[in-house]
Amino acid sequence: MASETEGSGESDIEAAFADDPALVSYVAAGDPDAESTKEYVRALVRGGTDVVELGLPFSEPIAEGPTIQQAIRRALDAGMTPDRYFDLVADLSEDVDVPLVCMTYYNLIYQYGSRKGRDGVEPFVEAAAEAGISGLVVPDLPVDESDPLKEACEAHGLDLVFIVAPTTTDERLARMLDRASGFVYVQGRLGTTGARSDVSSETHVSLDRLSGTDLPKAVGFGISEREHAREIVAGGADGVVVGSAFVDIVAKGESVADRLEAKARELKEGAVEGGEKVPEPERT
Question: How far apart, in whole angstroms, are the C-alpha atoms of residue 228 and residue 217?
Fold first, then answer.
């Protein structure tokens, strides 16, 4: 998949937010195996997913809660590696017409080049682009150390997505926005990923801080229900990122594809409802 929408000047990821509020759906590649992952991604897309965040398993996923940590462990135990990941992406990029985003950790990106006999991050980015990845999310990458990866992404036409936490200072936020592309990943609450029963007040504060950026804003961490998606988009987000709710379905292993499709449809409908403008009352 090309990383830029032809004739529009915007990336595939930005274009995915253009028509209505976007659903960004996460699954761990290789959980429980590569062929199942392809089936699950196709189901998520049928349900209305606009961007697939496909996790590349790493042994120390510090941003993840127990649900996704266990998915990553299952994928690693099943033999998922970066090269197998890129093969999986190449197959998926021919099957689904939505951007595929790689979510992984910086050490794995850097070490990939060493294993290929080349230093630095470019070998990984080059392989990701060739496979069909449209962007990267790297939660442990400090913005002050992001220049090499940003330069490699620009050279190969990939977006680099930064995660903005409730604790991100204004100074660091400005540097992130200067380097970010695709969308801004808004961490909706402190802590690690995982489904929650409510929407944190921190979400609305974070969205207010980002009101001046032109990039789409998608909120993740804790979203699992239709009402969550509706409230977040109504509060100013351009989309939602959902992971643990889908990974829980995969872990249970019962009618997985059908249940993923149904959950994606529920969340997408909630996001769209949140984006619908309430008509102003007529003045008399």
Answer: 15
Q: Give the residue ranges of DSSP H helices in 100-189.
A: 106-115, 122-131, 147-156, 170-179
CA dihedral (19, 39, 218, 242) positive or negative = positive
Tell me if residue 190 falls in helix, strand or coil: coil
Phi, psi of 160 (to 5 degrees): -115, 115
Give bridge partners of residue 11 from the DSSP assignment.
4
Measured on CA atoms in the order 35, 82, 158, 205, is the torsion positive or negative? positive
User: pLDDT of 22-70, one tens digit each?
Assistant: 999 999 999 999 999 999 999 999 999 999 999 999 887 666 778 888 9
The vertex-195 CA angle with 46 and 103, nearest 5°, equals 65
Q: For residue 4, give the DSSP letter.
A: B
**Catalytic machinery residues:** 53, 64
Both structure tokens of 191: 């802590």
Q: Characterize 3-18 residue by residue with b for buried, 16 or more Cβ atoms within 10 angstroms of its Cβ, and e for exposed.
A: bbbeeeebbbbbbbbe
Q: Where are the beta strands (DSSP E) in 222-261?
A: 239-242
Phi, psi (deg, nearest 5) at residue 36? -65, -40
What does the pLDDT read at residue 161?
97
Beta strand spans in 29-141 (E)? 51-55, 100-103, 133-137
pLDDT tens column, 215-243: 999 999 889 999 999 999 999 999 999 99
Say what the pTM is.
0.90
Mean predicted confidence (pLDDT) in 77-82: 96
